[in-house]
């Protein structure tokens, strides 16, 4: 029997980019940004010095040091028992991130083989049964079952099945078996 497939985004889904950006922003500008204060805002509005946000995410070491989302490692291990998992990241937007993302995955998710890691530009070509992503633009063209992982910038979006935590994601996916 073939396992169902899941495409899982990195930033904002298994990698806690929100915490990382808040920390970097405070270190660079001394500006305290709260999680509560950025809910429902775009990245540009949440972190108002746009050219600085761009330089932060393009800085060496940024993607290599992102914290892991709570329960992500255990959840992916659990899901891997019944699903084939692909990590899919639109990494081409930030070319410095390519090697860093691969190294980060090897450290935190060593059980995901290199052949199941897709660092790409557009995710339109992804053809799995499910896709878990925090950006509606990646879910809009997806032909399988899209699942939105809650992030500060998507709290106002209501057109997708939403999961707020990895425990919720696992519970939903296990009920589809």
Brief write-up:
The protein has 177 residues and is an alpha/beta fold. It is built from eight helices and six strands, in the order βαααααβαββαββα.
Could you characterize what this model shows?
37% of the residues lie in helices and 15% in strands. The chain has a six-stranded parallel sheet with strand order 3-2-1-4-5-6. The mean pLDDT is 94. Helix 5 (72-80) packs parallel to helix 8. With 177 residues, it is of the alpha/beta class. It folds into two domains: 4-16 and 67-175, 3-Layer(aba) Sandwich (Rossmann fold), CATH 3.40.50.1000; 17-64, no CATH class.
Q: How is the topology of this model organized?
A:
Layout: E1 4-8, H1 17-29, H2 35-38, H3 43-46, H4 50-57, H5 72-80, E2 83-89, H6 97-108, E3 117-119, E4 130-133, H7 136-140, E5 145-149, E6 161-163, H8 166-175
Parallel strand pairs: 1-2, 1-4, 2-3, 4-5, 5-6
Helix pairs in contact: 5-8
